[in-house]
Design brief:
The protein is α/β, with parallel strands linked by helices. It has 32 helices and 24 strands. The strands form five sheets. Strands 3, 4, 5, 6, 7, 8, 9 and 10 form an eight-stranded mixed beta sheet that branches. Strands 16-17-18-13-19-20 form a six-stranded mixed beta sheet, with helices on both faces. Helix 3 runs parallel beside helix 14 and helix 5 packs across helix 9.
Length: about 950
């Protein structure tokens, strides 16, 4: 039986396969269909919708979470607004209606208290009369032992103490005249109250506020005080119109005021401080409204100093400072000077003082904006595991492979899956934004919906792409779920948070200032980072998708065959990029500490000669000397009660070209610190050094070009080879082309790093000795004129050490070298001169022979006998010299020091040969003083126990 099927005209596979069978066979060929891209997409999309229907509970929880969060923010906002109350907005009062019952709510400055007034809109601020700060009656100045000129203290009992203004001046007559013009005895005019108040001096003992939108003196139920020389006006009321056109009735009372002359500004200052309420509590409180020092005032010069009390405050130290009433005191002095020049009728009217206009404000803590970036990240974070678990689930149970075997192509799978999640998440984001707007969250209402849509669209695309990418690293749902925390940490959430933060800041500012939030025009603001966020999200989206396509082809999975990681080479060319990271060392200069006085050491003639040579070279430079250290000091400041630490004290040294100077000393003696100052790692506390005639304090950059350094610790890049190190440093020394290659090859050969391609291995594979040899080669490449080597042979085997010594000996022919070492053999083999450091000071300097002769002068006799013969050996040696000193004794082996001046070698040999006839001398020896003996002796003399 033959089955008839409808074949796609483009598909000829079925026909070809049928022809391969014999004609006699009866073959039943099933219906073969070519599925188009549209068909695959429709099938996959429908499958996904069905899958979502089966997960309606999970989807409902996802939608409910952001809705619940929005409702929670609204509830928090209502509670906070209720707790804030009316103190953080412009004040309002219900004013009774005229001629009819009830009241009408009025808001504004005149209906506000001190805390509310700063939130009011003030288009035309009220002008308030300038008022002088006056002491309260109980604090006004009265007579005491220090001020007999003041009125009697009994006035405080009656509450009628007058105010006193202090004044002084170099010309008492002129100062008296100026003081007489400070106050005005004019009358107030109710028809023009503000101008009439400008012609007199008014004051108040009310504490000032921190704003002039309201003047506390006119708000509080206390009378305004009129300061006059003679009070003949009784208390009265005056109506003062405010900015709203409403008159404020205010009571005025006169306060007698006198001016008191003191002999000097110091006397005024003492009087003011003595009476200050926070001064000496044993003194009586005497306060003054103002004090003047007219100084050198004359007919052609106005010279005045004004004292005023700026401490009036009823707030804590954490509150903003109050205003200080100084305008009236300045006007009083200026007006007095004008009257002095032009007569008593002259005036400089100070009509009023007032604040600048300001818009209305209200303190509204918008929690949807303040907390939005934190809460909304939780909402958006739910999208990532949805993508990840869905893709991993299909991979774990081989559903993806099953779909492929049934004709679903990779392009169709990724495209439809992508569009499916995109539509799903955009619906999710739309519901989130719309519901947040519906419940009144300003985070959504104040910002432009277009920008919010673009941001949400890019974020959703980026998170889908990242989910696709990360699905390649998981093979089952449990692994993906367990690694979700780590995966969430990898998500580039910073860009997302920055975008949310920008929205929150603009919406919060919009609520506070009653303006619009973020719009498209704001993207050009210099402080707006949303434009950068949009670019970053787009780039991450693109990169994640590109990586997803690559990993989908090459990542190992439990089903399917992955491609070779370099499969793309057939389409693209590979370009090799090389680079290196720069290395830098920073040194931190110490603060200057005054060094001790420099004196030539009388007990160290060689050190004194070196200092004297340096002093001569300082005045008469000589090109022969490449290194001149001039009184270098390095002092570390005192810490934790310890005295300052002198690392280097008055170090002077001159090193000629072709000379190698060795620096010996125990650990911590100052050798490395001295070198570090010369090479620019440390700044000298005092003194300086000249390298090739250049000062290390001002010309270090030029010195680097002629200097080579082998530091105490190898400073190498582990990923670079010895050859690459030398190429780098050779280029820094201006070597190029064949010259550079030749210099590198010679350097590698000289330190035995050339053979067996050792120079082409990365330095991290080197032994300590190989790294040390490379450091020496680096210090010598490029023919530097000055070389510093800090313990160059540390860690080398004997053969490498002797080879390195040969390299250093050959290289010192045309350069100056300073070398530190703990090896006396190395010092004698390499150094033309040797200096011994102890406690930061140079104790001696000279060639090894000179030092042995100076600090030696002794033979060392060693004799080994049985222990019971030690006493006879001591007596035997004492016969050679009475100044013999035993320096060692252990198990019958004794060591003695014999002065050369008292003992001859022949006598020692003769005495020991004779003693062999009666003593059992097992071994003996006579040696001259070594450099090591000198080192130990000098170190001990300097107060240091040397370790050898």
């Amino acid at each position: 039986m033959t089955n008839t099927c409808a074949l796609d005209p483009e598909s000829s596979t079925a026909t070809k396969r049928q022809k391969n069978f014999p004609e006699s066979s009866t073959i039943s060929v099933g219906p073969l269909y070519y599925t188009s891209y549209r068909t695959q997409a429709d099938a996959l999309f429908r499958k996904n919708l069905t899958y979502q229907k089966r997960n309606w509970k999970t989807n409902s929880c996802m939608v409910c979470f952001p809705l619940t969060l929005c409702v929670l923010l609204v509830v928090i906002q209502v509670v906070v607004n209720y707790l804030l109350g009316s103190d953080f907005q412009c004040g309002c009062k219900c004013v009774p209606n005229t001629g009819r019952p009830g009241c009408t709510k009025h808001c504004g400055v005149e209906y506000s208290n001190q805390d509310q007034v700063e939130f009011c809109e003030v288009s035309f601020p009220q002008g308030w009369p300038a008022i002088l700060q006056v002491p309260r009656p109980e604090y006004r100045a009265v007579r005491n032992a220090g001020s007999p000129e003041l009125q009697d203290a009994t006035c405080r009992n009656d509450g009628n103490c007058e105010c006193t203004i202090l004044y002084t001046g170099s010309n008492k007559t002129l100062a008296d005249t100026m003081a007489s013009y400070l106050l005005s005895d004019g009358l107030l005019n109710s028809s023009d109250p503000l101008y009439s108040l400008a012609s007199v001096v008014t004051g108040t003992d009310a504490h000032p506020w921190d704003t002039l939108l309201l003047e506390s003196a006119f708000v509080k139920q206390t009378p305004i005080q009129l300061l006059q020389n003679t009070c003949y006006v009784p208390a009265f009321n005056l109506s003062i119109p405010n900015a709203a056109g409403v008159s404020v009735n205010k009571e005025f009372e006169c306060v007698p005021t006198t001016a008191l002359y003191l002999g000097s500004a110091i006397s005024i200052n003492d009087e003011l401080y003595r009476g200050f309420r926070k001064g000496n509590p044993a003194m009586q409180i005497n306060e003054f409204p103002v004090a003047y020092d007219f100084g050198g005032t004359s007919a052609s010069r106005f010279d005045v100093k004004i004292w005023f009390n700026g401490t009036y405050s009823n707030k804590t130290s954490h509150d903003p400072p109050n205003l200080i009433r100084v305008s009236r005191s300045l006007n009083m002095a200026s007006q007095a000077f004008l009257r002095f020049l032009m007569g008593p009728a002259a005036q400089i009217p100070l009509l009023f003082v007032k604040e600048m206009p300001k818009p209305s404000m209200q303190l509204r803590l918008d929690f949807s904006s303040l907390l939005g970036p934190h809460f909304y990240m939780w909402v958006l974070g739910f999208l990532y595991p949805v993508v990840l678990t869905a893709l991993v689930y299909e991979k774990q149970y081989h559903l993806r492979m099953m779909m492929k075997m049934h004709g679903l192509g990779d392009l169709s799978y990724w495209t439809i899956t992508y569009i499916y999640f995109l539509v799903l998440f955009m619906i999710y984001m739309f519901c989130f934004i719309m519901f947040g707007s519906a419940v009144g969250l300003n985070f959504f209402l104040k910002n432009d919906y277009g920008i919010q849509f673009v941001f949400a669209f890019l974020y959703v695309n980026m998170i889908i792409a990242f989910g696709f990418l990360s699905s390649n690293f998981f093979w089952d749902v449990k692994t993906a779920t367990g690694g979700l925390v780590l995966a969430l940490e990898i998500i580039p959430a910073f860009a997302t948070y920055r975008g949310l933060f920008e929205f929150s800041q603009y919406s919060f500012s919009a609520v506070y200032a009653n303006t619009d939030g973020m719009g498209w025009d704001n993207l050009t603001d210099s402080k707006n980072g949303l434009s950068d966020v949009v670019i970053i999200l787009f780039m991450e989206w693109f990169i994640f998708m590109l990586l997803t396509v690559y990993l989908d082809q090459v990542a190992v999975s439990e089903s399917g065959i992955n491609k070779h990681p370099l499969f793309f080479l057939s389409y693209f060319f590979k370009r090799k990029m090389e680079g290196s990271a720069p290395f830098c060392e920073e040194s931190k200069a110490m603060a200057h500490i005054n060094p001790e006085d420099d004196e030539l050491p009388g007990d160290r003639p060689d050190v004194a000669r070196e200092k004297k040579l340096v002093q001569e070279l300082r005045s008469r430079p000589d090109k022969l000397y490449s290194i001149i250290c001039d009184n270098l000091k390095r002092v570390y400041p005192s810490t934790d009660g310890n005295p300052p630490k002198y690392a280097v004290r008055t170090f002077s040294l001159a090193v000629a070209r072709g000379e190698c100077v060795g620096m010996l000393g125990p650990n911590g003696a100052g050798k490395t610190s001295s070198i570090n100052m010369m090479i620019g790692f440390l700044k000298p506390t005092a003194g300086t050094a000249y390298i090739q005639g250049m000062n290390i304090l001002t010309e270090m950059d030029s010195i680097y070009s002629c200097m080579g350094v082998c530091p105490q610790h190898d400073l190498l890049w582990g990923q670079l080879t010895a050859h690459e190190h030398l190429l780098f440093y050779g280029r820094l020394k201006n070597l190029k082309g064949a010259e550079l290659n030749s210099a590198v090859e010679r350097s590698l050969k000289s330190v035995n790093l050339f053979d067996n391609k050792i120079g082409d291995k990365q330095c991290r594979k080197y032994s300590g000795g190989m790294k040390r040899r490379l450091s020496v080669a680096i210090s010598l490449i490029g023919n530097p004129q000055v070389v510093y080597m800090d313990e160059p042979s540390t860690g080398l085997d004997p053969a490498s050490r002797y080879n390195l010594w040969s390299v250093i000996r050959e290289s010192k022919q045309d350069r100056a070298i300073i070398l530190t070492t703990h090896s006396m053999e190395e010092a004698e083999a390499l150094c033309d001169r040797v200096g011994i450091f102890v406690n930061g000071e140079l104790q001696c300097i000279g060639n090894a022979k000179e030092l042995r002769h100076r600090f030696g002068g002794l033979y060392v006799l060693t004799i080994t006998t049985p222990v019971n013969e030690e006493a006879e050996v001591i007596g035997l040696v004492k016969k050679l010299s009475k100044d013999t000193r035993k320096v060692y004794d252990l198990g019958g082996t004794q060591k003695f020091e014999l002065p050369k001046a008292e003992v001859s070698v022949a006598d020692v040999f003769m005495t020991v040969e004779q003693a062999k006839q009666r003593l059992h001398i097992q071994a003996w020896g006579l040696s001259d003083t070594t450099l090591e003996d000198v080192f130990i002796k000098v170190s001990k003399a300097g107060g240091v126990v040397a370790l050898t």
